[in-house]
Specification:
Elements: H1 2-56, H2 60-85, H3 92-117, H4 122-176, H5 217-232, H6 263-267
């Protein structure tokens, strides 16, 4: 009894731990989903603000907004290409490591541009713009190199796979077009040709038909020759004409207008 109670208690504890584990996993997954949604909404708001500031505030502030928008667009596009292709191509792991190092410089430049937007001294900002623009071009150029290299690699793999698939389809198509069956006498699926004499199987004898002779090797040789000629022909082979035999007078039908034969003729 005590063992049963202990087993029931152990099962209850296991069920509770499993429920806690599933709950924690669900909460973490929901939190990650919420974080992604919030981050996406924040990026959308910031991008919209930068575009509006670029158009509404010409001058130094508008140029800073343009630099930030170009940096964010280039880095985000490269990130999508690399992380999107990494599950299918393990060779992109090194490129992702390089991009993460490049992202650190990009975040640093973005933070600096954001601080300069709140700087009241426009003259100082104007003097630093050429250096900031040069840094931006180097970062975006590196990001574009990684992005286009990953795209070219994916397109090359797709072209190779398509070429291999096309070759396999050509081979299969050629195999499917071989529908003509070679006629063989031993093929059970071959349709019999009308008029062609069928050969007797092993242990079977063919009954001679009407008008066919059964005695003599000459007749057998002639029949064998005709059978070989029929086997080599492509069309239906006509049967041999039946032999003409004399009628038996006793089997002839009698009609009322015929005279009965005389006795002396029958005796002769």
């Amino acid at each position: 009894m005590e063992a049963a109670v202990a087993i029931v208690g152990l099962l209850f504890v296991l069920f509770v731990l499993a429920g806690v584990f599933v709950t924690v996993k669900a909460v973490k997954a929901a939190k990650r989903g919420v974080d992604r949604t919030v981050a996406h909404a924040r990026r959308t708001v910031e991008d919209t603000t930068l575009r509006a500031r670029q158009l509404a505030q010409p001058g130094v502030v508008g140029e800073l907004a343009q630099l930030r928008l170009s940096l964010r667009t280039s880095m985000r596009a490269t990130q999508d290409v690399l992380y999107g292709g990494s599950p299918d191509d393990a060779s992109l792991s090194e490129a992702i490591g390089l991009f993460e190092r490049l992202s650190a410089h990009g975040h640093e430049l973005d933070d600096e541009l954001k601080r300069l937007e709140r700087e009241p001294d426009r003259a100082t900002i104007g003097t630093r713009l050429p250096d900031l623009r040069e840094r931006l071009e180097r970062i975006t150029h590196s990001a574009e190199s990684l992005r286009w290299a990953a795209r070219d690699r994916a397109r090359k793999f797709a072209d190779d796979d398509l070429a291999s698939l096309s070759d396999q389809i050509d081979v299969e198509s050629g195999a499917l077009r071989h529908w003509t069956r070679v006629e063989d006498a031993t093929d059970p699926l071959r349709d019999p040709v009308p008029g062609r004499p069928e050969s007797a199987g092993p242990g079977e004898t063919k009954t001679p038909g009407r008008g066919q002779a059964t005695d003599g090797p000459a007749r057998s040789g002639a029949a064998a020759g005709s059978s070989d000629a029929a086997a080599r022909s492509w069309g239906p082979v006509p049967e041999d004409p039946p032999a003409i035999t004399a009628r038996d007078p006793r089997t002839q039908p009698s009609y009322p207008w015929q005279k009965a034969p005389r006795t002396e003729d029958t005796t002769r």
